[in-house]
Amino acid sequence: MNVKADRASATRESILATAERLFAEHGVHAVSNRHISEAAGQGNNAAVNYHFGTKVDLVRAIARKHFGRIERLREELVDAIDGDGDLRDWVACLVRPSTSYLHELGSPTWFARFSAQVMTDPALRVIVLEESLSSPALARAVEGLNRCLDGLPPEVRAERGDMARQLMIHMTAERERALAEGTPTPRASWNDAGTGLIDAITGLLLAPVTPAS
User: Fold this and answer.
1) How far is CA 210 from the centre of its chain?
2) CA neighbours closer than 13 Å in the CB half-sphere of residue 89
3) Lowest mean pLDDT segment, chosen from 38-42, 72-76, 87-91, 100-104
């Protein structure tokens, strides 16, 4: 790789890291491409547009930067179960990849808050959903989990799936925010936080179902 290509690659990485931090802290729509370029130390205010195109393209690039490693962590967990897990095992396949990855990143991190910001934006959440739905390991984990919930009415299963997703997204973002601010957290580590989420989601999925009136 020549010097010019090295410089371009470094610029892209700086823009990605800066955009992720600003999006996490302020929200996607509150941050302009010009703001990102300036914060990343780029003299050219059009640097973001030049390297990534639209803001949607930038959000997708940030998501892809992280999802590759998360996918590999999930593959390892799913392969270890080899199709023979109980409900808690499959819930762990949904939770642990993210909490383990956030631990790997060290402190500070911004990805959990970035994900929460994107997932609450109707125009952007489809990006994260598309990346997730393209994950073979996630599909296998959800299939295994659904086998364990075969007696749960489909509409209740779907509702609780939405609840579980909200817990995973917003509890990891809340822990990340607390760590960034130096405020106390209920759990001492990302591993412990993952355990708490797995316990809570397993209990949620197994909760009694009140018959419709």
Assistant:
1) 32
2) 16
3) 38-42
